[in-house]
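FAQ: What does a ligand-bound record look like?

Like this one, built around D-ribose:
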Amino acid sequence: MKIAIACDHGGFPLKETVIDVVCAAGHDVFDLGTDSVESVDYPDFAEKLGRAIQSGEVERGVLMCGSGVGANIAANKMKGVYAAICHDTYSAHQGVEHDDMNVLCLGARIVGPEPVKEIVEAFLGARFVGNDAGEERHARRVNKVRILEG
Ligand code: RB5
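The answer part, i.e. the structure of the complex:
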């Protein structure tokens, strides 16, 4: 898959770890910045990542800020972006499997590199099951979410 990575200065300390995990899992990284701990505004990087999803340039993204909260709120304002903060592996894979999550948000001030490696692996290894036999309820629910987008 093509995976966009973006962060603000608060998320920057996790960026290299995330890039390494995505590459090691055999995916292509689209690094959308930021590239240092110099202060920037998280909505600008959420927008870059969201635009990459919307255009189809990438299939999924990993977006980081200090807490994950601002990144998560900003990303979900964009049509077609389904983002969630997942600081555990269960949410990271189930969010894809049941909810078709396409953006994983992380807070670098909350979770460290070792759990993040496993969380990102869980996110990348998961696929949406809503179109599988017997799992149609998930597609029904996701379609209702899409209706909420307006
Ligand atoms: C930046 O200081 C911080 O507010 C930002 O990274 C993020 O945590 C916002 O939710």
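Follow-up question: can I read anything off the structure? Yes, for example: The helical segments are 12-24, 42-55, 69-75, 89-99, 113-125, 136-148.
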